[in-house]
């Protein structure tokens, strides 16, 4: 019988985390479950920094970006001592379970706590990177794509006006999901992401050839290359400099950065967050433990937390082929 649970948001914040918190609190209320919200990710758990979350606290937050509980990374949890301390806090607050909204890193942290905690642990996937196995989409990804698109469309206007080459850097530490999706939707001429192989000065020609080909075909015109972060030694500005030198044309870099994490969640993220937040509570009531509440083919599903970071999720190979064979001309 579950009477009291905790919730926290951890890792990179993502639009829709508030919608997930709201769904968790509202669903828990129906089951007469009290909810405690920990502040600043796992840090709030270690420091016992928390607040009671009642339905009135989550009113009108569905449309808000960020997270009302704040998010953070927590170094201490990487130690065994930190995991023990987190489990002890959950026991001392008499929590029957904890719901962690975050990415695969946060789920690894959750599993570390599981070694010392007797209650139930459930994950809800929230990260703009969409790099979590076991769910088609993570909360925040759809909004991040729209935010990136909005910016790239504006860059296209100025790139067209000056007939310039622009490199737009998008987020995604280990995954090209944001870059491939936003690049396709923006009609970018080239897309560079980790899944396409390592790019260095030595194989720069792979980028130069399609640019030179396009120049022959269309003459001087705007050309947008969407680049995932960490794709080139020295970063996207260094890549723009290298291209400028090789082509003898000024290439401009635009680093979109954290703007991709902010803003009001789009409808798809609000719906996904509401569904997964509610499902997480219901499945916890049904006895689920060490599982992530994900969505596959529009169906809410449980997936083992231990497998969420296996990096089996591939970016769409069909769109990769299409981009590489057709769109770059
Ligand atoms: N291997 C691990 N062991 C214990 N805790 C971890 C581990 N990996 C990540 N965490 C915890 O989860 C937090 C968030 O992880 P991170 O990878 O930064 O973000 P995300 O959850 O979005 O992938 C980390 O700051 C840390 O507290
Ligand atoms: O905000 P920080 O600490 O600079 O982290 C930036 C990273 O966080 C993200 O925005 C989200 O990553 P996580 O969800 O895995 O934390 C990445 O795309 C980016 O590389």
TrEMBL record:
The keyword Magnesium applies. Gene3D superfamilies: 3.40.50.450, Phosphofructokinase domain (3.40.50.460). The keyword Metal-binding applies. Its cofactor is Mg(2+). It is found in: Cytoplasm. Keywords: Allosteric enzyme, ATP-binding, Cytoplasm, Glycolysis, Kinase, Magnesium, Metal-binding, Nucleotide-binding, Transferase. Its main location: cytoplasm. InterPro entries: ATP_PFK, ATP_PFK_prok-type, Phosphofructokinase_CS, Phosphofructokinase_dom, PKF_sf. Pfam families: PFK. Pathway: Carbohydrate degradation; glycolysis; D-glyceraldehyde 3-phosphate and glycerone phosphate from D-glucose: step 3/4. It catalyses: beta-D-fructose 6-phosphate + ATP = beta-D-fructose 1,6-bisphosphate + ADP + H(+). Its EC number is 2.7.1.11. PROSITE patterns: PHOSPHOFRUCTOKINASE. Residues 4-283 form the Phosphofructokinase domain. GO terms for molecular function: 6-phosphofructokinase activity. PANTHER family: ATP-DEPENDENT 6-PHOSPHOFRUCTOKINASE, PHOSPHOFRUCTOKINASE. Belongs to the phosphofructokinase type A (PFKA) family. NCBIfam families: PRK03202.1 (NF002872). This is 6-phosphofructokinase. The lineage of its organism: Bacteria, Pseudomonadati, Pseudomonadota, Gammaproteobacteria, Chromatiales.
